[in-house]
Amino acid sequence: MTDHPRIPLAGVIGHPIAHSRSPALHGYWLKRYGIRGHYIPLDIATSDLADMLRALPKMGFVGVNITIPHKEAVLHIADVITDRAALIGAANTLIFRKDGRIQADNTDGSGFIANLRQNAPHWRPHDGPAVVFGAGGAARAVVAALIEVGVPEIRISNRTRPRAEGLRSDFGAKLVVSEWTQGANMLDGATTVINTTSLGMVGKSDLRVPLDGLRSDAVVTDLVYTPLMTQFLIEAQAMGCTVVDGLGMLLHQAAPGFERWFGHRPDVDDATRQAVLSA
Ligand code: NAP
To answer: Does ligand 1 have an atom closer than 6 angstroms to the CB of 235?
Structure first.
């Protein structure tokens, strides 16, 4: 009998998953580079997660992305965890290795930095303090990445203060925690400002911080990408700041997984962006 090579499968696991843009993104790259493979949305409940992750490699899956609510839980299932996923305490990319082991990685932080470098090329992380609004899962990836690229100080504020204090105890003395209601005070002299909360998303209220103290040469970014221009970014842009939307982070965080699973480093360019926006 002829041994046919298997067509590689990958996907994204979440619960729910219908909203995910990842299938459109990976599907676009597969077509663009003429790669035989498929990328599939997989709606899997928490109670089934471990069993499904063990079954997927047997079905021809080479890996999966992981999204809400499973990003932390997969660390208890994976056999190998990269240092950065362990530090962040969550994974967004799993690799089903040939030796049968499941490797967990987190590419959110590198995607965040790649987005800033691409869309604010003059950005210099060392130039001054960074301000982070929010202390959820995405904030952990952002804080880890900011420390890695040499930001001198990170001022952080979260509605639920103990969560921000938790980041300080995990990531160290570069973090300075402020009260949520005093968020505007953190902006004085800051050169990088990031919204990592879900405020500003379609259907949620806006992140309301008076931006009077913001330097006009600051780089301001938002992890929210629906809408692309949040009210927070619109106001920062009106102050003269360089603003970077969150879609580029989504595109860049996906690239390492695609390369690992399908063997081709994909371009993150305007055509990629348009393909995802029009899907
Ligand atoms: P998460 O762990 O659930 O954290 C949510 C954050 O938003 C927390 O800091 C939370 O504060 C804050 N928040 C929610 N509602 C709030 C409200 N009404 N007032 C004040 N603060 C509020 O979620 P996550 O995974 O960190 O994701 C956060 C956002 O980043 C989401 O919009 C997500 O889509 C986006 N994201 C984008 C990318 C990308 O590639 N662009 C990647 C990852 C995440 P509390 O702690 O007080 O609840």
So the answer is: no
